[in-house]
Specification:
It is a single chain. Helix content is 35%, strand content 25%. It is globular and about 75 Å long. Helix 2 crosses helix 4 and helix 2 crosses helix 6. It is built from 19 helices and 25 strands. The protein has 3 domains: 5-187, Alpha-D-Glucose-1,6-Bisphosphate, Chain A, domain 3; 190-418, Alpha-D-Glucose-1,6-Bisphosphate, subunit A, domain 3 (Alpha-D-Glucose-1,6-Bisphosphate, Chain A, domain 3), CATH 3.40.120.10; 421-538, Alpha-D-phosphohexomutase, C-terminal domain (TATA-Binding Protein), CATH 3.30.310. The strands form 6 sheets. A 7-stranded mixed sheet has the order 2-6-5-3-4-9-8, with helices on both faces. A 5-stranded mixed sheet has the order 11-10-12-13-14, with helices on both faces. Strands 16-15-17-18 form a 4-stranded mixed sheet. The chain is α/β, with parallel strands linked by helices and 539 residues long. Strand 12 (281-285) and strand 13 (292-296) form a beta hairpin. The chain binds alpha-D-glucose-1-phosphate-6-vanadate and cobalt (II) ion.
Amino acid sequence: MPGVVTVNTTAYEGQKPGTSGLRKKVKVFIQENYTENFIQSILDANKNAIVGSTLVVGGDGRYLVKEVVDKIIKISAANGVAKLLVGQNGILSTPAVSCIIRKYKTLGGIVLTASHNPGGIDNDFGIKFNCSNGGPAPDGTTNEIYKLTTAITQYKISPDIVCPIDKIGVQQFDVEGRQFTVEIMDSVKDYVEYMQEIFDFPKIKALIQGSSGKPFNVLIDSMNGVTGPYVKRIFVDELGASDKNVRRVIPLEDFGGAHPDPNLTYAAELVEAVKNGDYDFGAAFDGDGDRNMIIGRGAFFVTPSDSLAVLASHLQCIPYFQGAGVRGFARSMPTAAAVDRVAARLGHEIFEVPTGWKYFGNLMDAGRLSLCGEESFGTGSDHVREKDGLWAALAWLSILAATSLSVEGILQKHWAQFGRNYFTRYDYEECASDPCNEMMQALEKKMTEAGFVGSKHSSGDKTYVVKGLRIIFEDGSRIVLRLSGTGSSGATVRLYIDSYEAKNVLGDAQVMLKPLIDVALKLSDLKRYTGRDAPTVIT
Ligand code: VG1
Ligand code: CO
């Protein structure tokens, strides 16, 4: 009978969850008791409910996931958790965790991922707690977890539990007279069944197979992240695509050395393949499966902000919304305001929330929000409480099947109807932290000084007049500058540029936005503070 051992430990500094969980280098997580401290603090933050509870545990397959699942099993057993639902081999996508928490009404779940950050022994790992609504813990809970990490002196563990996670099935343990159950689950089954309820699979299958003429060629790229098995089951087994329509579908601990972030820079292989091949549609997902990038024939790129707006105006193509009806829409603050125009036209509420998916959950729980998104390649609906990459790809295919248009055709029609919010984001990754903080303070100071509102800023033949902070210009154009909360070292500066054109909708975003970018670089003095001439990634 496995016993319970209380281990003395000392607190580590800096176990503060950021935009989405605690993310650090693997080398930080493998320090003695570092991971144990954080897991115990998660359980302690739920202390009134933890005894007798059920929790979901899974991750994106990166290096360290299996070891940490084992620690969670042993620490949960010692703390009186009644049952764990664990993905086979520790594999569960982030949206699948959300789906399973909601379906089985568990107390919450622990998600092991650093999302789009690279994996492997020299790269990143992460731990995130999700609540009973299936969504990332709100600030109150993460602050409480952090507070507990700063004062922790002991954790409880059942070191003798032996619980392999490679075979589906139920394992029972008697922990000092208390029953403890671990159920190893099929990683994809519940999620795939849910997608079949939400979407019209036969209709998407008919599109892909070309039942009404030419097959619609898709290329789906899992970037060796967690979505591989989901993509195979959904696209190949259910929707009639072939193995040639999917790529990088084996989850790898280091993502094959790649950066599992679905954007034009890091998913360049997919972009090239679609550009040079006979494909009508391409999609890629990040390491943990909550992000998506959508491209069309010739690698026509759909910005996430536009993707959100297009989905918003076509939700009636999707059975889930035919049944549940459509409530409001929302976007994160830096996301371009294209969806706002759709909301206005359809008469739905629109919300702007801070960056991070946890800020959408309350609105969904209150029944006011159906669809939301972030410019950072996140799209989702109230079917779960995480953004959901595969859901977004299936939503797009539903629209393509219903409209018989191309991806580019849908966008052109959309812009003609609503005008276009040109958008770009510049990321300056892993800069020195101090000067970046100074830059943000200096800009804040400049922006709040008398005379800033109303001041004129020019580049070339374009002049912008400041109307408000964050910085909003008279014509609705915006500059947003913020520091990332998901990096594991140094500071990552994000510069977001959004500019609306009612008529001139077919331009090149980088060309159209160049003057506003120049103004932003000048105003922030970004090159001097970061020492960087160019961004690491342009979206
Ligand atoms: C980034 C994105 C944000 C997203 C977050 C988590 O945060 O900007 O929109 O919600 O990542 O996404 P930050 O603080 O680095 O800008 V994921 O796919 O990493 O869970
Ligand atoms: Co992610």
